[in-house]
């Protein structure tokens, strides 16, 4: 008799039939959502349809976001998903944030990265490690009107992020720090009202000097460099941010001095699931933009979606999309359950970016010549997905993390 049957038999003998049925059915699939989570999905999808979709192509072409659409994200609670209601946030869970990111990425991955960084990196870092004073000051704003950037990378420190050269010097009286250095490729820096900045407060201690600061973007000495001209995510601002003798009160240190490297690692572990949500949204967005075409377009007197070779390919893609969805929401549930999820988060980041790229590329092929033009959105998804294998840890870095954790298991 199988172990499952044995378990079922012993359960039945110990509990009435209805209780067994309840306990056996009490674990929903990871892609089955609560009523609240489904409401978030419906709300985000309808927001995208009405507020975002009509403007996506124009914003991509112009290379900037319309401020009123960013404001609308706040008005609809999408920028403070996990911020508690007492601070004006939506008081939802991590899964809900990822659902929102996925839905938005289906329509515009640039907006998805804005929502992703806000919810999975900045808001959560301040919630987890910010003093009461920092939380009182920033959480209500982050939930209602203040976008944010996560400032870690520098010209000489990308994958090797902790080799950063940005310095934070403590004043003699211990009241403030002076920050000098330049951060590179900072997403959402045009829109941000606050920066979460990693700087080394004691270079002699190496990475153990790294300290995180919450800095008002209007602080004197901060300047933004030229917008990067990018392959994709063109509406998303990516700019260098320079700190020149920027004076920051010591109370703006996030958590403890010298713990910044730990906070960066921990928050990026979670952030990788958010990038997985973005990549899943991209894959689904490309697929959804393509499939109707396959059943409209006829060649040789047959709908192209009915050719067996086409069927094989889109069935394969749909299967891989489902695999990403399952992995990503499983990682969400693991995080929420408080069990280790670092390996799974890296796997999600790695695999979701591979699948998004494959799906977007194949979808262009499925649409033939028109897929290569701006008539369909597929070419944009193809451009937008590429960075998924680069930011928040390149694919090699994810493989390294996965390998490290696997080697500990044997
Ligand atoms: C559009 C965009 C938005 C971004 N937004 C932000 C942001 O908001 N905030 C922020 O801080 N940063 C941001 N970044 C920076 C991003 O996180 C870095 O680009 C990324 O971490 C890679 O660093 P790098 O570009 O210096 O590449 P490198 O680290 O120089 O890597 C180059 C290549 O070498 C490989 N490599 C490096 N080290 C190893 C190793 N040990 N083993 C094997 N292979 C290795 C990499 O996998 C990669 O293929 C953004 C980047 C882009 C493109």
TrEMBL record:
Q: Which top EC class is named for this enzyme in its record?
A: oxidoreductase
- Ranges for domain Acyl-CoA oxidase/dehydrogenase middle: 149-246
Q: Does the keyword Oxidoreductase apply?
A: yes
Q: In which pathway does it act?
A: Lipid metabolism; mitochondrial fatty acid beta-oxidation; Amino-acid degradation; L-isoleucine degradation
* Cell membrane listed as a keyword: no
Boundaries of each Acyl-CoA dehydrogenase/oxidase N-terminal domain copy? 34-144
Catalysed reactions, semicolon-separated? 2-methylbutanoyl-CoA + oxidized [electron-transfer flavoprotein] + H(+) = (2E)-2-methylbut-2-enoyl-CoA + reduced [electron-transfer flavoprotein]
Assembly, in brief, is: Homotetramer.
Q: Which family does it belong to?
A: Belongs to the acyl-CoA dehydrogenase family.
What name does this protein carry? short-chain 2-methylacyl-CoA dehydrogenase
Q: Which organism is it from?
A: Tetraparma gracilis
């Amino acid at each position: 008799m199988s172990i499952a049957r044995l378990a079922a038999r012993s359960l039945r003998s110990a509990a009435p039939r209805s209780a067994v049925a309840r306990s056996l059915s009490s674990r929903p699939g990871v892609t089955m959502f609560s009523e609240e989570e489904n409401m978030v999905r419906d709300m985000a999808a309808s927001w995208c349809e009405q507020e975002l979709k009509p403007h996506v192509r124009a914003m991509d072409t112009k290379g900037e976001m319309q401020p009123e659409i960013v404001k609308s994200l706040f008005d609809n609670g999408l920028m403070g998903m996990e911020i508690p209601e007492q601070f004006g946030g939506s008081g939802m869970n991590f899964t809900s944030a990822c659902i929102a990111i996925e839905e938005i990425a289906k329509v515009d991955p640039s907006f998805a990265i804005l929502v992703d960084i806000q919810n999975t990196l900045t808001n959560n870092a301040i919630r987890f490690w910010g003093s009461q004073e920092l939380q009182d000051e920033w959480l209500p704003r982050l939930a209602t009107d203040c976008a944010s950037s996560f400032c870690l990378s520098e010209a000489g420190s990308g994958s090797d992020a902790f080799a950063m050269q940005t310095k934070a010097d403590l004043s003699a009286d211990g009241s403030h720090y002076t920050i000098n250095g330049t951060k590179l490729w900072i997403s959402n820096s045009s829109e941000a009202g606050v920066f979460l900045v990693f700087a080394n407060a004691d270079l002699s201690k190496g990475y153990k000097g790294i300290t995180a600061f919450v800095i008002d973007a209007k602080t004197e000495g901060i300047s933004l460099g030229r917008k990067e001209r990018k392959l994709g995510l063109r509406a998303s601002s990516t700019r260098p941010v320079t700190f020149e003798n920027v004076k920051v009160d010591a109370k703006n240190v996030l958590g403890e001095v010298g713990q910044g490297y730990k906070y960066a690692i921990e928050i990026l572990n979670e952030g990788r699931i958010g990038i997985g949500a973005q990549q899943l949204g991209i894959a689904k967005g490309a697929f959804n933009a393509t499939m109707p075409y396959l059943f409209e377009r006829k060649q040789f007197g047959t709908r192209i979606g009915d050719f067996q070779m086409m069927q094989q390919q889109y069935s394969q893609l749909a299967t891989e999309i489902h695999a990403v969805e399952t992995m990503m929401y499983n990682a969400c549930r693991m995080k929420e359950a408080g069990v280790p999820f670092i390996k799974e988060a890296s796997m999600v980041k790695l695999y979701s970016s591979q699948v998004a790229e494959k799906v977007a590329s194949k979808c262009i092929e499925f649409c033939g010549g028109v897929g290569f033009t701006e008539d369909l959105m597929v070419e944009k998804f193809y451009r937008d997905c590429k960075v998924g294998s680069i930011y928040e840890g390149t694919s090699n870095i994810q493989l390294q993390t996965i390998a490290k954790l696997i080697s500990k298991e044997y």
